[in-house]
Structure to design on (745 residues):
């Protein structure tokens, strides 16, 4: 049997087993495995893990910040690459500092690594936001996720710098040794690091609050499993000289994984922003199932495995369009259910634009990829142009979607510089599409001219690549705008994100006759997941309607925390100065964000001559008032605390 | 008189969008580009002063790519400045 079938079978069996255990669970093994996994995540490697913050959201933010840096590098590399197709001598003035273009293959390879690394970081980061939000708002180990992100970048930089290092030293069989070390760093180490992340995701999922597993989590888990398995196959296949195994592993790494991550991010960003459910469950299942059993039409290489294999491959390639169309239609229809919210949110707008453009690139990739796949090679470098266009435009838009929607969620902040973000999305759409079209015309013209036999005319195609580079410049500018937006979003003085999710301990609530409002119900503790029963009044002895609350709510031992003395003094100060809490809050909210942080509260207490506390003492006061645990004070929280002090302490003292 | 009649038909918003500065920068750069093209468009004449300056930087690095890279370098400068100011804010 051909090795490609054995490899494909093993990958599919692994995916099926993982999917099965995700649905069925692992029974009694869950608890001990969770303990072992948590021990590994939190303690290994000893010393190194302690360097990283375990605060909620820190792991995801690390992934996305690294992704942003790689995204900028990728856009810059691609701009340089396209320009050099117009003028290969453009940067020759930098030869004195080591710049060498040669045939451009190194710049192309590096740009491809930059893009795949950026996509990996940002879209995994976006999916991790969905995972953590489904389970107590954090990953099982945020520190481990941060550590994995840092080590992945170290390993990737090592792969990029090794050729320069090897050019300085003399090693026997240098090229072979270099390739082996690069493979170990990129594939073996990469697989181990992604495995650590997968364990983190599994443990987090084990603590999820809802039984259902969202499409984003499915896509993320299957992408991670496929990535780990195919990295191992690529590594060992190379050692065993099995070209078919390596070929298939490359299709998985360059096709399945980026597409699965794109859909993972899209299935969270778009429905979440629209506030609507995913449009079609059957399209979603088609999207997921067919993606992992077909050959995607991007980044194909020649398959020299006989006629039968080529025919099967061509059929699987044609089927590979199905999941892309299904996912695209599903997401666009979901976005269409709430267009105003989608258009106003730069991240969701970017993701929706990516989903609209995906089928166009997929069809282009199908025809040009088929040309490469069957080895006809009649379309010149058009397949490469479509592939890079797909990565920079579709991938770029999805990465912007992650930066503008998922990152603010992870940082629990509102998106800063939203109009710049909107501009970045437009830059990427216009720049990416026109750059691809212009480069394709250049490719086509060059091919036609070569075939015509009039070689002198080839030089005139350079103009198409100049236009392509100039248009792609807008994508590069978009990455700069995105980076600035990300930096400003994460700043402490940026306004906090107002989460729509409402926590409630009430499981069911019976509505009696008469009228009421949603506000009234929310005020009574009814949450969005509370079951509302209409018209069935359960009479108890007293004849009132019943509100069943969770046992946990009442089983908690009520502990009376002493009110800090400084807060009592503050309540007295307000009473003496006849200030309302609203006036006082407005006077201390220095940045007008509607929230007061520890610094602002410290300044207020100092100005009122109540206390001049050091920063490390402020945490105690903030925690005493901070009901939602976000580390900041808002007006209702302060109002509740001061009113409580007035009622409980000041009035009793007066009496 | 009702309140509605006292309101003007059009008002100018006070919340300045952050992208307006990006637009102004891009328009300025595009304008400079058009001026630089003056001698190409009107081959018989040259702009005084700018016509003297543009050829000076026209051969910068031997390629027009440097005009683009200067923009990217300014962008990187803005990112670094934002990161530094973030550290200062912290």
């Amino acid at each position: 049997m051909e090795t490609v079938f054995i490899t494909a079978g093993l990958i599919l069996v692994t995916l099926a087993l993982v999917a099965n255990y995700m649905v069925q669970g692992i029974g009694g093994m869950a608890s001990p495995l969770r303990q072992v996994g948590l021990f590994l995540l939190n303690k290994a490697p000893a010393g190194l893990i302690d360097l990283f913050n375990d605060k909620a959201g820190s792991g995801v933010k690390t992934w996305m910040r690294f992704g942003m840096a790689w995204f900028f590098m990728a856009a810059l590399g691609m701009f340089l690459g396209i320009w050099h197709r117009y003028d290969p001598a453009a940067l020759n003035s930098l030869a004195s500092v080591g710049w060498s273009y040669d045939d451009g293959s190194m710049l192309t390879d590096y740009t491809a690594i930059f893009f795949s690394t950026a996509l990996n970081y940002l879209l995994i980061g976006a999916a991790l936001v969905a995972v953590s939000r489904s389970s107590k708002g954090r990953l099982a180990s945020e520190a481990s996720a941060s550590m994995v992100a840092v080590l992945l970048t170290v390993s990737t930089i090592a792969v990029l710098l090794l050729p320069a290092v090897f050019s300085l030293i003399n090693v026997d069989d240098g090229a072979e040794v270099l390739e082996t070390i690069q493979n170990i760093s990129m594939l073996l180490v990469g697989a181990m690091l992604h495995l650590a992340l997968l364990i983190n995701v599994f443990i987090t999922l084990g603590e999820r609050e809802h039984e259902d597993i969202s499409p984003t989590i499915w896509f993320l888990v299957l992408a991670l499993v496929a990535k780990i398995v195919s990295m191992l196959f690529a590594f060992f296949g190379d050692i065993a000289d099995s070209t078919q195994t390596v070929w298939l592993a490359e299709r998985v790494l360059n096709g399945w994984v980026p597409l699965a991550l794109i859909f993972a991010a899209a299935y969270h960003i778009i429905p979440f922003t629209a506030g609507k459910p995913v449009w079609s469950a059957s399209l979603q299942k088609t999207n997921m199932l067919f993606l992992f059993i077909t050959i995607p039409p991007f980044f194909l290489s020649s398959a020299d495995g006989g006629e039968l294999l080529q025919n099967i491959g061509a059929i699987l390639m044609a089927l590979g369009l199905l999941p892309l169309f299904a996912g695209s239609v599903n997401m666009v229809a979901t976005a269409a259910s709430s267009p105003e919210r989608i258009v106003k949110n730069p991240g969701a707008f970017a993701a929706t634009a990516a989903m609209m453009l995906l089928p166009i690139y997929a069809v282009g990739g199908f025809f040009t990829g088929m040309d490469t796949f069957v080895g006809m090679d009649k379309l010149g470098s058009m397949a490469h142009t479509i592939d890079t266009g797909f990565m920079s435009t579709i991938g770029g838009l999805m990465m912007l979607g992650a930066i503008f929607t998922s990152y603010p969620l992870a940082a629990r902040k509102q998106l800063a510089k939203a109009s710049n973000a909107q501009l970045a999305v437009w830059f990427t759409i216009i720049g990416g599409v026109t750059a691809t079209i212009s480069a394709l015309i250049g490719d086509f013209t060059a091919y036609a001219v070569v075939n015509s036999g009039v070689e002198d005319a080839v030089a005139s195609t350079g103009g198409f690549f100049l236009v392509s580079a100039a248009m792609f410049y807008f994508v590069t500018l978009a990455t700069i705008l995105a980076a600035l937006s990300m930096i400003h979003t994460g700043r402490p003085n940026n306004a906090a994100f107002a989460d729509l999710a409402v926590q409630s301990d009430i499981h069911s609530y019976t509505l009696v006759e008469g009228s009421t409002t949603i506000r009234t119900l929310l005020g009574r503790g009814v949450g969005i997941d509370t079951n509302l029963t209409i018209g069935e009044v359960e009479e108890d002895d007293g004849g009132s309607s019943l509100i069943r609350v969770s046992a946990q709510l009442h089983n908690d031992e009520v502990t009376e925390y002493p009110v800090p003395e400084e807060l009592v003094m503050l309540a007295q100060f307000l009473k003496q100065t006849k200030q309302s809490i609203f006036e006082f809050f407005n006077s201390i909210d220095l940045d007008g964000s509607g929230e007061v942080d520890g610094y602002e509260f410290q300044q207020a207490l100092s100005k009122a001559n109540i206390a001049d506390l050091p920063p490390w003492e402020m945490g105690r006061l903030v925690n005493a008032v901070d009901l939602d645990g976000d580390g900041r004070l808002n007006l209702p929280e302060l109002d509740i605390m001061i009113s409580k002090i007035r009622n409980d302490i000041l009035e009793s003292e007066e009496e | 008189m009702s309140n509605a009649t006292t309101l003007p038909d059009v008002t100018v918003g006070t919340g300045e969008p952050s992208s307006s500065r990006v637009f102004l920068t891009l328009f300025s750069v595009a304008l400079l580009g058009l001026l630089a093209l003056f001698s190409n468009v009107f081959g018989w004449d040259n702009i005084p002063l700018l016509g003297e300056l543009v050829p000076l930087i026209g051969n910068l690095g031997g390629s027009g790519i440097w005009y683009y890279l200067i923009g990217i370098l300014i962008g990187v400068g803005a990112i670094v400045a934002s990161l530094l100011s973030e550290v200062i804010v912290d």
